[in-house]
Amino acid sequence: MNLEKIMNDLEKKHPGEVEYLQAVREVLESIEDVVNQNPQIEAKGIIDRIVEPDRVLMFKVPWVDDHGKVHVNLGYRVQFNNAIGPYKGGLRFHPSVNLSILKFLGFEQIFKNSLTTLPMGGAKGGSDFDPKGKSDAEIMRFCQSFMLELWRLIGPETDVPAGDIGVGGKEIGYMYGMYKKLTMEHVGVLTGKGINWGGSLIRPEATGFGAVYFAQEMLATRGQNFKDKVVAVSGFGNVAWGAITKLNQLGAKVVTISGPDGYIYDPDGISGDKIEYLLELRASNQDIVKPYALEFPGAQFVPGKRPWEVKVDVAMPCATQNELNKEDAEKLVANGCICVAEGANMPSTPEAIEVFKHAKILFAPGKAANAGGVATSGLEMTQNSMKLSWSREEVDARLHEIMRNIHNSCVKYGTQEDGYIDYVKGANVAGFLKVANAMMDQGVL
Ligand code: NDP
Ligand code: 2IT
Question: pTM above 0.85?
């Protein structure tokens, strides 16, 4: 496989799609040896086929604000690969959304979903709509307008979207309502649904819980656990909340959260009432980080910075892509951090990952560590198909088991000669092989 040629051709075809090209390069670098050892992969054109989405759908989303003004946003669905199951992946509503970001997320989703062991293909979608500061009625109208286009492209056996940044239970509810109205069908076409109308227990917590379960497995490879570990978390959204909740249960102390304008350092630990307070702020669409420092005087707001300068044992980036760069990684390593588990998708830059690998600290990429979210979406789909609901304990036990299996796959494919586990390689190779084999079985499509 000629990696540089493939990347050069892709750069020419998709100029400026920085995040997408970054994600593709990372995967191709990891699987190069496996591809070279298996000539069938090249003969069947698997690499050329897997790096391009099956289709990209783009549409306008007009909506009317509370003052009667008309707005037009862009909507997208990138259906990347359905070799092992229906397209599956979240919807992101954030002003930064563009095709490159959704293609990177859709591409990553192929391998993540493959790792879960469940039958799900890869997709992603969303809009450049900014939910911040919008009223409930505005969000509802936007979601309804978005679904007026999206419903044609999705279905419970075709493509099953879910949440991501800016899309939580509320947005899923409004979109589901419109889908149901248009099709007259009450089916499992979205995951992350409300618990009374087809949702799964544990789905809201699943990504964060899963990331902590994964990190527990990583720590165990070095005879360690979370008891009394000091942890830096970034963001305070769905994933960060789940991770912090589980970290507290396991006896760790979480000392940071962050937003786009800076981070909070709370040396006493972020737990209990403090989390309740944060959730209230979040539910009312308010800024989180600054008010926290005013409410809890032991805490400090550090404007314009990211939490990676704090001395911690474990770091869990849970906000967004490329939020942890080389300098951040060097600070973490210098401060004695032993483990980085990505709750977000691609939060560490390639240069940061190099620093972690060079220092031989434990590092898990998002497609392994945050796969518990989509895995539990898969469990929601299973429950919908059976028209049954599992208990919290049952879903949590299955999630835990899936995270252990993903860890085992990473160990199997990522263990180096000196015993160091390259989780990036392990996750990419394990995720890729299953999809590549399915594509080879199914012919050139
Ligand atoms: P939320 O919208 O619930 O939370 C996002 C958090 O990240 C917020 O704290 C937000 O701050 C912060 N954030 C978002 N964009 C930026 C930015 N450009 N710069 C700095 N901070 C930012 O999203 P999720 O928790 O669902 O998603 C977080 C990450 O986890 C994403 O990478 C997502 O792709 C990934 N993920 C999510 C899964 C899920 O099930 N939800 C599953 C697997 C991965 P603020 O609100 O103040 O803007
Ligand atoms: O990035 C992700 O895995 C998600 N946003 C969750 C996708 C899903 O379909 O549950």
Answer: yes
Q: Which atom of ligand 1 is nearest to the CA of 105?
A: 34
Residue 243 and residue 345 in one domain:
yes
- Identify whether residues 146 and 265 lie together within a single domain: no
CATH of the domain at 87: 3.40.50.10860
Of 112, 124, 239, 286, best ligand 1 pocket probe by most atoms within 8 Å of the beta carbon: 239
Contact status, residue 80 vs residue 109, Cβ threshold 8 Å = yes
Domain containing residue 222: CATH number: 3.40.50.720
Judge if 169 and 220 occupy the same domain: no
Domain of residue 242 covers: 206-364
Location of structure tokens 């298996």: 38
| CA dist., res. 236 & res. 320, Å (int) | 11
Tally of structural domains, the chain:
2
Same-domain check for residues 211 and 181: no
Distance 378 CA to ligand 2 centre (A): 10
Tens digits of per-residue pLDDT, 224-273?
999 999 999 999 999 999 999 999 999 999 999 999 999 999 999 999 99
Whether residue 394 is contained in a domain is answered as no
320 lines ligand 1 (CB under 6 A): yes
Does 345 sit in the ligand 2 pocket, CB within 6 Å? yes
Ligand closest to 291 (CA) is 1
Ligand nearest to C-alpha 347 = 1
Q: Each residue of 282-310: pLDDT tens digit?
A: 887 777 788 899 999 899 999 999 999 99
| Beta carbon of 163 within 6 Å of any ligand 1 atom | yes
Q: What's 273-319 look like in SS3?
A: HHHHHHHHHHHCCCCCHHHHHHHCCCCEEEECCCHHHCCCCEEECCC
Does residue 118 lie within any of the structural domains? yes
For 9, 25, 123, the CA distances from 55, given in Å and listed in that order, are 19, 20, 10
Pocket test for ligand 2, best of 77, 374, 379, 406 (most atoms within 8 A of CB): 374
At 366-423, the pLDDT tens digits run 999 999 999 999 999 999 999 999 999 999 999 999 999 999 999 999 999 999 999 9
Shared domain check, 165 and 25: yes
